[in-house]
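= Paired protein data =
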Amino acid sequence: MLRSMTGFGKATREMGSRTVNVEIKSLNAKGSDIYLKLPALYREGENEVRNEVNRILLRGKIELTVWFESVVTEKSVTLNEGVILDYLSQFRNLEPALNVPGNEVLLPVIMRLPDVIRVEKQDFDEEEWKQVMETIRQCISQVGSFRVQEGAAIELDFKERIRIIMEGVGRIRTIEKIRIDRLRERLDQAIKEISEKTKVDSNRFEQELIYYIEKLDINEEMVRLSNHCDYFLETMEKEESQGRKLGFISQEIGREINTIGSKANDSDIQRIVVEMKDELEKIKEQALNVL
């Protein structure tokens, strides 16, 4: 069963006066590349989130974002009235000497001075964090389901393209019989022409002929190509992550196809080889997205 590295998930949970939102986006990557965006209050939980993402999603370029929405207005910032009045009093004492203007001009200046605004610092809430982590796990589960669906589509695509390549092997086998007959006819004709003009060592000539025919034989490559395609299909059915392995097998398939094309020396076979290469390139592109 294949799983894609592409995935998306979104989960929400109401927690009293606030709602936590979690969103995960996943793309393909060679390793595990995780980017986390957590509220400042829960930054100390980053390692726990990272470990959970690594444990379940394993690999990919993963972006996880957590943010809160308040159901009611929360007052976390207040004006420090005592400090503001103290600043204002001191400015008024300086007014006669420095010709300081009135309150309307002074107030914007005072608001930029230290300690005018008091921020109420929130502490890390263990119970609330447990709910946040549960929401994150729910979102990760959604990404996992998304990956399975994408993997099923990729698997169908792989099977169809491997079928086309195997079909090409069958067509080449049909053409191969005709190609060998044509080759023998050309060789027989060439032997007759040479024999009429010069004396030839028949034993040596026969050895050279066998060597030449063996160099043009593509049966071994077609057998290996068929075996690689079968192994590719078998590997897809395994439960564990197989993306890298499928990539390696597709490279071996490519080597056999290239060798068949270079050894065949036949225009009809070359056309089939080009079609097979086109299907294989599409397999390689998709394999990069398999977990």
About this structure: The first strand starts at residue 7 and ends at 15. Residues 180 and 186 are 10 Å apart (CA to CA). The chain has three domains: 7-74+125-148, 77-119, 150-287. The beta strands are 7-15, 18-27, 32-37, 60-70, 77-79, 117-119.
